[in-house]
Amino acid sequence: MLQLYKNIKSRRIELNMTQSDLASKMGYADKSMIAKIEKGVIDLPQSKIIAFAKVLNTAPGILMGLDGTSVDQSSLSEGIKIKIYGRVAAGIPLEAIEDVIDEEEIPEELARTGEFFGLRISGDSMEPDIHNGDTVIVKRQDDAESDEIVIALVNGNDGVCKRLKKYADSIALISLNPNYEPMYFNREEIEEKPVKIIGKVVELRRKF
Fold first, then answer.
1. pLDDT, tens digit, for every residue of 125-174?
2. Rounded Cα distance, 202 and 208, in Å
3. Cα separation of 77 and 26, whole Å?
4. Which domains does the chain have, with CATH numbers?
5. Which of 23, 50, 200, 205 could form a disulfide with 27 if both were Cys (CB 3.0 to 4.6 A apart)?
6. Peptide bond before 128: cis, by omega within 30 degrees of 0?
7. Which residues are catalytic?
8. What is the Cα–Cα distance from 188 to 170, expressed in whole angstroms?
9. Strand ranges (DSSP E) for 9-159?
10. What SS3 class is residue 167?
11. DSSP code, position 36
């Protein structure tokens, strides 16, 4: 598989594309993911190989170092479809939400690790990394580590996408856009409002 990562890099350079350019086209938040992929640090599922081939205007078989210019597409898993919501409301189970606006595919390998959904971002509070109209892929879970990007429900309102910061007796939900003030909650407020984490963002997808 090392040949795959070398071919991704060489094709990117051939197209005069920077790592940041490729990251943006693939829906990654920044170039660090591309750097890791090109070094062979991250294994790519078959669905991602297809996506890279489309962005790099080549065939999956060429990226994989196979002879010829094509590969049997049936041998490349298309992944698992998940629902993309326009909003996530407090007090309503995801299964009951009717605001399903789209579907996205995630790699089968990822789908096996838990339950996932997508959320279409509205607003600019997570600029410059996450834009209005972007889709975030979210793993359902009720907690996360400090500094991870989460989807949280606050005080009965719709879900918000923020960076979680944990302190000894409180938490903060922080926008990446400095024009927005952080939201701080002590233990009592977390219980009373309430503040609930419903998932961790694991991937960003952007369409042009």
1. 999 888 999 999 999 999 999 999 999 999 877 789 999 999 999 999 99
2. 20
3. 18
4. 2-75 (1.10.260.40), 80-205 (2.10.109.10)
5. 205
6. yes
7. 125, 162
8. 9
9. 80-85, 100-106, 116-120, 135-140, 149-154
10. coil
11. H
Q: Which long-range contacts (CB under 8 A, 24 or more apart) does 183-192 make?
A: 183/154
Contact 24, 206 (CB under 8 A): yes
* 202 three-state secondary structure: strand
| Distance (Å, whole) CA 45 – CA 64 | 12
Task: For residues 135 and 201, give the distance between their C-alpha atoms in angstroms, rounded to a whole number.
Answer: 10
Give the angle 77-8-52 at the CA atoms, nearest 5°.
40
Residue type, 178: P
DSSP H or E stretch at residue 22: helix 19-26
How do residues 65-83 score in pLDDT, each as one tens digit? 764 444 444 444 557 899 9
For the whole prediction, is pTM greater than 0.85?
Answer: no
Q: What's 172's DSSP letter?
A: E
